[in-house]
Design goal:
The chain is of the alpha/beta class. A 7-stranded mixed β-sheet has the order 3-2-4-5-7-6-12, with helices on both faces. Strands 9-11-10-13-14 form a 5-stranded mixed β-sheet, sandwiched between helices. Strand 15, helix 16 and strand 16 form a beta-alpha-beta unit. It is globular, with a radius of gyration of 26 Å. The two termini are about 35 Å apart. The structure holds iron/sulfur cluster.
């Protein structure tokens, strides 16, 4: 046994390695990116396990399924909205009989630090009928990741590890144990269980439902769902989940009371344990990071006379992250006295593109080309360039999900708006932009697709794109875009007049055009130089 200081993401990664991981797949997405970055570094140092970035979360999930099919242990990781992309294999993988342990680590982002929503993946796990483990500490992130593979093989279902930003991106001390060996290759004992033809799928769905009571027994009795008895005569109690446990415990001394406390860290939620815990209590406070998931479930479990207080009832803010101060207020404690610094009037610092970012030059050309078109529409996507919505650019009007810019532009153009420009980054295009482009090509949609090729996945720290920039033009041409309406430009101020002119010409064209604006992200250039200097030292 030894102690390490790890990010929550790294604790999951190392827990998986020590559980005998054979392969891990992912698409970068804050706050889950560091899981795979850690595994890639681990592989460089130790020669394994396989750790790869994939085209998107769906392909990552499917590659991991193949590893499980071969009887070996696998991890797929993603941010919460990435699970929407992988929803098809995720939902269906609950029905097949998992062979090698299959763990899906999903990092939620309550408070939306770098996401377009704050969906709670526990609900998704419930929807698919898979087991979910939710760590409340770095040690639990490591322990649960290790255990999840055993649980997955025992019940033949995928197991989700649900993280949140504050755990994924903070560091803590983790005691690590001896690594377990990898599974040998062994094909599934019931190969038909992987063929979800209707007749098999019906059998598999029924088999999952039949297994469900034994899965419920596991979460009813597992050590992740624990009761701390507290004051015997208290008529109220507290239920916490995930990190909310820490925020509650931090306030216990100030509270001067010690009511009974149930912490839930494993799902399906332990309905019997909750029923036993609540019996005799007049009031239960539910503190959970994310949706009022357990609170909602409680309303069908506990007698109506028991008051349930949480996000749904209005006792806890309905949205955003919790923290110790918010929980303090919920517990009725006075606000902490904090050090007031007089005269410190810091200017607001809204997020913005790096000075000199190539996207800024592309937006300048787009704005200039669209001058004189008051009804112009620019749909956009997810990446650094989404900041084009803010001053000084004010250049885009939408950002919904990965790849949406392309399909939305087609729809807006077909609805009658003109001109319509879709702006998407190279990595996002490879992730989810190519399939909607096929629709645009088929319809010869009257729109211009502008691919901002900065040769990297910029927003998540500069990971390599799944295919190099040099192949992008050929890929677009291969999909079927006509050569006379396909242009490759350099996104640089010295080419601004030319770029604006090309854009303007294509805006006049009442059919599909694609423009690839190329210039490398400044951050990856800097990092490249840093690496060279480090290599010489
Ligand atoms: S990280 Fe790169 S792509 Fe993102 S804003 Fe900075 S220079 Fe632009």
């Amino acid at each position: 046994m030894s102690e390490l200081v790890l990010l929550g993401d790294e604790a999951v990664a190392l827990g998986a390695v020590h559980a005998g991981l054979t392969a891990a797949y992912a698409y970068p997405g804050t706050p889950s990116t560091e899981i795979t970055e850690y595994l890639i570094r681990y592989r460089q140092k130790h020669g394994g396990p396989i750790a790869q970035w994939c085209a998107n979360e769906k392909t990552a999930y499917e590659e991991a399924l193949g590893v499980s099919f071969a009887g070996r242990r696998t991890l797929v990781s993603m941010k919460h909205v990435g699970l929407n992309v992988a929803a098809d294999p995720f939902m269906n993988s609950a029905l097949i009989s998992i062979n090698g342990g299959f763990v899906v680590a999903v990092a939620d982002d309550p408070g939306m630090h770098s996401s377009q929503n704050e969906q709670d993946s526990r609900v998704f796990a419930d929807f698919a009928r898979v087991i979910c483990l939710e760590p409340a500490s770095h040690q639990q992130a490591y322990d649960m990741a290790r255990e999840a593979f055993d649980v997955s093989e025992r019940f033949q279902v995928p197991v989700m590890i649900r993280l949140v930003t504050r755990l994924a991106h903070s560091r803590g001390i983790v005691t690590v144990r001896e690594a377990r060996a990898e599974n040998p290759v062994s094909r599934a004992a019931t190969p038909a269980s992987w063929i979800l033809l209707p007749a098999n799928a019906r059998r598999q769905w029924r088999a999952l439902l039949d297994r469900w009571p034994s899965i419920q027994r596991y979460t009813e009795t597992c050590s992740h769902n624990t009761v701390t008895q507290g004051a015997v005569f208290a008529d109220w109690g507290v239920i916490t989940t995930g990190l909310a446990r820490n925020y509650y415990i931090e306030n216990l001394d100030a509270l001067g009371a010690n009511p009974p406390h149930l912490h839930v860290g494993a799902y399906p939620y332990p309905a019997e344990a909750i029923r036993r815990f609540v019996s005799g209590l007049q009031r239960v406070l539910v503190l959970e990071e994310g949706y009022p998931y357990v609170e909602h479930a409680l309303r069908g479990i506990v007698p109506p006379a028991t008051a349930i207080e949480g996000r749904e009832s209005g006792h806890v803010p309905p949205d955003g992250e919790l923290n110790p101060d918010i929980v303090r207020t919920i517990l009725g404690l006075p606000a902490r006295t904090v050090l007031q610094v007089e005269g410190l009037n810091l200017p607001p610092r809204p997020p913005q593109l790096c000075a000199g970012c190539p996207h800024g030059d592309s937006f300048h050309a787009v704005t200039s080309a669209l001058a004189g078109f008051p009804d112009a529409v620019v749909t956009s996507d997810i990446g650094c360039y989404t900041l084009g919505a803010l001053p000084p650019y004010n250049a885009i009007q939408s950002c919904v999900c990965m790849g949406a810019s392309v399909g939305m532009a087609k729809g807006a153009a077909e609805a009658g708006l003109h001109p319509v420009v879709a702006v998407i980054g190279d990595s996002t295009f490879l992730h989810s932009g190519m399939t909607p482009l096929l629709d645009c090509i088929t319809a010869d949609a009257p729109m211009t697709l502008l691919i901002l090729d900065n040769k990297t996945v910029g927003m998540t720290g500069g990971q390599r794109t799944i295919r190099p920039s040099s192949e992008l033009e050929g890929l677009v041409r291969g999909l079927g875009v006509k050569a006379d309406h396909l242009h490759v430009l350099e996104a640089h101020p010295k080419h601004d007049a030319h770029n604006t002119e090309v854009l303007r010409r294509e805006l006049e064209h009442r059919g599909l055009s694609v423009i690839i604006a190329v210039r490398e992200c400044l951050e990856t250039i800097k990092r490249g130089k840093g690496e060279k200097v480090a290599a010489k030292a």
